[in-house]
Amino acid sequence: MQPVRHQWNRIPVSEIGFSSPTRLENGKLFIHIDELAELLQSDPNIGDVRFEIARPGESVRIIPVKDVIEPRLSLIPGYPGFPGVLSAWDPDAGGVPSGEIASLSGMVVTTVGSIVGFQEGLIDMSGPGARYSLFSGKLHLVLDITVKEGTKRHDHEKTVRMAGIKASDYIARSVLNGPLPSGSRETLTNPEYPGSPGSPKRAGRNGLPRIAYLYMLQSQGLLHDTYYCGVDVKTMLPRRIVPTEVLFGAIVSGNCVSACDKNTTYHQQNNPIILELLRRHGTDWDFVGCVITNENVTLGDKQRSSTLSAELIASLSPDGVIVSKEGFGNPDADLMMNCSKIEAHGIKTVLLTDEFAGQDGASQSLVDSHPKADAIVSTGNANEVIVLPPLEKVIGDDRVITELAGGSNKCRLPGGSVAIELQALIGSTNQLGFERISSRFK
User: How many domains, in total, are found in the chain?
Assistant: First the structure.
């Protein structure tokens, strides 16, 4: 059987404007906002939606951010984008076919709205906060959504989540459903999975080390949810996936965890661990596969998922495994269980995690540990405090800044600045390795 290959067509966007019809002209994206508003307001829970544009370098703060999505369109007949979310898709009915996908690079759809929980965050387009988020370098179409009074919290989250996905899909279908404008092209070849658990260890291609990836997804419930092909991950068992499924939006964020290490849908679509493993497959290592697993609440569920994850990983016969997680605190226990059980199979692990080591960096940074967890990449201390100056324009509602995880009722300073932890900045300590900060042991 031939490995699954996907050609990724990235079409650059240099500017956004509002005009009819929705189109892409010489790199400028024009959006028919009346048509888009009509589409979004077909959801009975939406009371109002306002559209804003934010550009890199502008004195703009976006708050509170729910999700960030990159517009994409599957060019594979019968295989939809955002499978199982916008259309029915059974991931076990024939698998993922080879083909093409197109995306708009340089711009994102960003959703904001009245706060659901206390975990949403902010994006600053300029100033000191901008250097902690890749999103400060993107063009944003911001959907400022007001849900109708009386909407329950879970329905509120779903309404805003689906609005972002629908808007992203609308834009992609409007401008990418035909001859593609010029852009970059990249072909990614997925690994061929070996046989069954207990199969004999095989040498990697050309003697290269065999590397697998265990992809932990937030699934603790109470607005801490992630969706795979439209299914809430907390209801699933660990499973192998075709790594490039993420390009098509197979994994969608539905959670309201702390902003710093929340994986937005954009993070899932562009997972740099998967992309790097694929790009260097056959050159620096033999990438043998990806397993997704959930992060659970009860001890029994943690034990079950970690045991199954380790067995699935072992079935790939890797020499080493990269393990990433989302969130902090409770998921630290899942991380250590996954690590120790994989190591018990004689397989080395490298873990990615951020730290909550206190504002002085001197506290215990994880709530759990294990002697086998001796190769850890830190993505930064989320408790570090940063002072953000006031910006000229706020999209959303900055009154909620005191309620964000990482904020407090004492965070406002004279002159309009705020002293908050990195925890409040979207993606600042992202545990997939998107950003540029880390922590070192001295």
Answer: 1
